[in-house]
Design goal:
single chain; 181 residues; alpha+beta; 4 helices
Length: 181
């Protein structure tokens, strides 16, 4: 091997060492900057009140639609028949009741991550910021987090610290794909 090849190999080694050192310095600076960062994404239950009021109003409206023909038939002495509209109204009332109970319960009991420095704690596992492949934010402000290429969890503006989470992701250079329509 000639002197030229040896010099080129040495230059390649120096360049690689420099890149590694710069990356380590960048990681150290990032960890130092984010060492005091600590927050947890938490479901904001104030939305439950708004949803309950809206579902209550919808329930009253459907009960009115359902009860009006029945009351008229009772007053005029006719036999009570629900008809297709009555059956549809009953089905919708059932769906509203199920949504009113199951929706807030699901949202308030789903697992959400905790952030400490450059680490993300989720369902008993620890993930580093560099393991997060991407975060896709939909036009409805729902952020879906992909860890090692797989969909891991989602969060939305209904969760406390949503904006802090996105700021943390930007500081950690996690690719954010934001869809705005």
């Amino acid at each position: 091997m000639g002197i030229y090849e040896e010099l080129m190999d040495m230059a390649d080694d120096v360049i690689e060492d420099t890149k590694n050192r710069q990356e380590k310095e960048r990681q150290d600076a990032l960890e130092k900057e984010l060492c005091d960062v600590h927050f947890k994404l938490v479901y904001d239950s104030s939305l439950n009140t708004i949803v309950a009021v809206l579902l209550g109003l919808a329930l009253i409206l459907f009960l009115k639609i359902l009860c009006k023909p029945i009351v008229k038939r009772v007053i005029y002495g006719y036999s009570i028949q629900l008809g297709i509209m009555g059956i549809i109204a009953l089905i919708l009332i059932g769906l509203i009741v199920i949504l009113a109970i199951a929706g807030p319960f699901y949202l308030s009991h789903r697992a959400l991550p905790e952030i400490k420095g450059t680490m993300l704690y989720y369902k008993g596992s620890i993930y580093y910021a560099r393991q997060i492949t991407k975060i896709k934010v939909s036009s409805m402000k729902i952020a879906t987090v992909y860890i090692d290429g797989k969909k891991c969890f989602w969060t939305s503006t209904n969760d406390l610290n949503y904006e802090a989470f996105l700021d943390w992701a930007r500081k950690c250079n996690i690719p954010l794909k934001i869809n705005s329509k």
